[in-house]
Amino acid sequence: MVEDFSEMRGDGGRVVSRTHDSSVGAAPSAPTRNTSTGKRTLRVRVDAGLRLAVGDVPPKVLEGLCRALSLPNPAYWKLVRLRKRPGAEPQTLYFFRQEGRELVLPRGAIHLLRRAADEAGLTLSFEDARVLPPKRLAKLPAVSLRDYQAEAVERLAKATQGTAVLPCGAGKSVLAVGAISRLRTPTLILVHTLDLAEQWREHVRERLGLEAGLVGAGEEDVQPVTVAVVQSLTRWEDAKLDAFLHRFGLIVLDEAHHIAASAFHRIVDRCPARYRLGLTATPAREDGLTPLLRLYLGAPLAVVKHEDLVARGVLVVPEVRAVETAFEYPYVGSADYAPMLGALVEDKARNDLVLGAVAREAWAGHLCLVLTGRVDHCELLAQRLSATGIPAAALTSAVPREERKALLDKARDGRVRVLVATSLADEGLDLPRLSRVFVAYPGCAKGRTVQRLGRLMRPHPEKKSAVLIDFLDRKVPLLRRHHVKRRQQYAAVLGVGAAPAAVPH
Q: Residues of the chain with pLDDT > 90: what percent?
């Protein structure tokens, strides 16, 4: 069920609406008794968050809300597991705050507030102080949407906030652009890398005919539709940031699972835009902070699974192959992990195995993406492939932004056959032509595994097959376990596991 503000009720069904371009307002007045129901009424002001007068909230309700909005701090417990001193790291994270005489809750916590009010026999009366700028965007081109995209946009228009959980290649950016066209309100799109910012500006340019502004990389070009890099906004003074955030009626958070990072949820929690839209392919977090997605962005507007889109022909089904290496290392405990990875990327026989597999697929005409965790490893593999005559390049944060953009354009045009990338390619990489992915570095993070498969599942007229090749370091027990976890994740996404490991050659 989508929790929304379209059914804000109180005082006999009356909603006090003050939607305007400023969130400044008086604190909620003292609770009253609803004459029609006999229940006490708790007044709530809605702007960037949910504001209640602390003295008006019954102690039991207050305690329950605070408990529900307190989560174990994964950073603290990680240090405990490693038998390290937590120092100043708090044991618990609190996602509520007190400002003067007001208790401020995340806006997506409306479902917790409703439940607590129902259990306490209270009715809620809402004062709407969210921002909806009076000047609408000029009429925009209609955006062609698939049914699940169109349904999510209409739910957003009614519910005013929520998340769209769609696999890679399912059209999250198209959905968001469709929402902009439908709502026609000034929009802020939040991203976490400059590469994503440029991709979003291109989406807006192509589908809406608008030149989106950019905040990031030293630029502060604010337009009716603006793409901003979160890390740039965090460096602004509060007054400047608040004035900026008050300009928008819709905020879109790309790769919304990052909301757990304080830089992200603090920005969203300051933005009083009427509409909020989160986009993600991987909502589940392994650190236990998954609830933050709903607390700050709202309940799901759409949840679409890979298998549904495969059945409809929207996504292609990649084959997963495992190739066994001969790498060995005397791993004993966690202190050996970093040295082991250093030995792995320098192992000549393993690198030769990886390079041979990549070269065969590249010479066969496939666009290949090789994933590793070290910049120096990227550069080494790219150089050795280039030396054989294969157009290859390293795609890392060490490569200047304009050069990275040019490399991606060359890959889309077929002028680069192999990209060797770090985690920079795990999110937001738009390469529909991609037909081969090579996992050349250990790891078992679920989000990354899903993202990597998703890179291959986008259809393209020239894509005849899609294959993910996973290198299995069977002789190191820890790395073998990592591979088993990846296989389980492949099975969860595709309904199949990896093929039997191939013999090294």
A: 61
Rounded distance between C-alpha atoms, residue 100 and residue 257, angstroms: 31
- pLDDT by residue (tens digit) across 365-387? 999 999 998 999 999 999 999 99
Distance in angstroms (rounded) separating the CA atoms of residues 288 and 291: 8
Which residue type does 180 have? I
Tokens of 246: 């008050």
Instruction: Count Cβ atoms within 10 A of the Cβ of residue 36 and give its class: 0-12 exposed, 13-18 middle, 19 or more buried.
Output: exposed
Question: CA 28, 31, 35, 37: dihedral to nearest 10 degrees?
Answer: 100
SS (H, E, C) 131-146: ECCCCCCCCCCCCCCC
Query: How many helices, marked H, and strands, marked E, lie in the chain?
Result: 17, 23
CA 188 to chain centre: 15
Provide the residue type at 380 as one letter: L
Domains defined for the chain, CATH in brackets: 16-128 (3.30.780), 147-304 (3.40.50.300), 315-494 (3.40.50.300)
Contacts of 69 (CB under 8 A, 6+ apart): 94, 95, 96, 105, 106, 109, 112, 295
Instruction: Give the three-class secondary structure for 288.
Output: coil
pLDDT tens-digit map of 323-339: 999 999 999 888 899 99
Q: Does residue 58 sit in helix, strand or coil?
A: coil
Q: CB pairs under 8 A, 24+ apart, for 208-215?
A: 208/140, 208/141, 208/143, 208/177, 208/180, 208/181, 209/140, 209/141, 210/137, 210/140, 215/244
Q: Which two tokens stand for residue 224?
A: 């009716």
Tell me the average pLDDT across 106-132: 95
Number of CB atoms found within 10 A of residue 91's CB: 10
CA distance 90 to 75: 9
